[in-house]
Amino acid sequence: MLTPTSNTPLIYADDGYLSHQLRLVLLEKKIEFSETNIRDDEDFAEDLPDINPYNTLPVFIHRELILYNNRIIFEYLEERYHQNKLLPENPIEKAQYRQLWWRIEKDWIKLADTLLTHKDTLDVNQANIARKQLTESLVTIAPLFAHKAFFLSDTMGVCDCILSSILYRLKPMGIELPLHLCRPLYQYMERMFNRPTFKTSLK
């Protein structure tokens, strides 16, 4: 595997939620990129530890730069490509949004990761606890989605890319939210899933 010499970013990805997030961010920012899915490149699985010591996906390559943490990748994309900003410009608003991003990762992504990444080996009791906590948390915040078109914002942002990739996988996680309590959240999901960029990110 060679680092690309063109100005077009390359990503190595799989069908997991983290790769989905990266594809969605790239598409929302209208950044041209090339992708190799590891299901189509068996040799890459052997090369992965050489470029990412954590042996995780996705991997983002831009010329000599190699990144393998989504938060760092997203921050780089925001600074490198100024079109279609997914973070606020104002320093205070940006800091508040980054804190919201951190809370999503801490409160929801951690639980979703447990259910999605380790679903075949996870202890049943641990899975039930994670599923219950995530369900209750989503039910609690569901009314917030009634006030804005996007998550606590009038414009599409990084948090929407992160959240939608998890909400799309509620069924595989064994989560079914009560409609009468979560109607605004379901409406948000419908808006997100119907976006052309979201549909493309699934391909």
TrEMBL record:
Belongs to the GST superfamily. One of its GO terms (cellular component) is cytoplasm. Residues 90-203 form the GST C-terminal domain. It comes from the Bacteria. Pfam families: GST_C (PF00043), GST_N (PF02798). This is Starvation protein A. Signal peptide: none annotated. Residues 6-85 form the GST N-terminal domain. InterPro entries: Glutathione-S-Trfase_C-like, Glutathione-S-Trfase_C_sf, Glutathione_S-Trfase, Glutathione_S-Trfase_N, GST_C, GST_Omega/HSP26, Thioredoxin-like_sf. Transmembrane segments: none annotated. SUPFAM superfamilies: GST C-terminal domain-like, Thioredoxin-like.
